[in-house]
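Lab channel / #folding
Pinned by the channel admin:
"Please post every new chain as: sequence first, then the structure tokens as a reply. Keep commentary short and put observations after the output so the thread stays searchable."

First post following the new format, from NK:
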Amino acid sequence: MHDGRFKKLQQVIDHYTTGIQPGKTLSEKLKKPIVLSPADKEDLLVFLLTLNDREFVFNPRHNYPRN
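Reply from TO:
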């Protein structure tokens, strides 16, 4: 996730399907439950894992600029 609290994609999927806490700053889009079957969760996870491009990720040209 954006703040690094989860180490694995499965944890992120679980958070969005069962861990959303209501609050005054919660997006309207997250107030309605996200319902996924175990098979849906597995399919989503497998799909997300295909979105990695090792050549891009490890290319030094894309590193954070250092002073």
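NK: The helical segments are 9-18, 38-49, 54-57.
TO: also worth noting, The radius of gyration is 16 Å.
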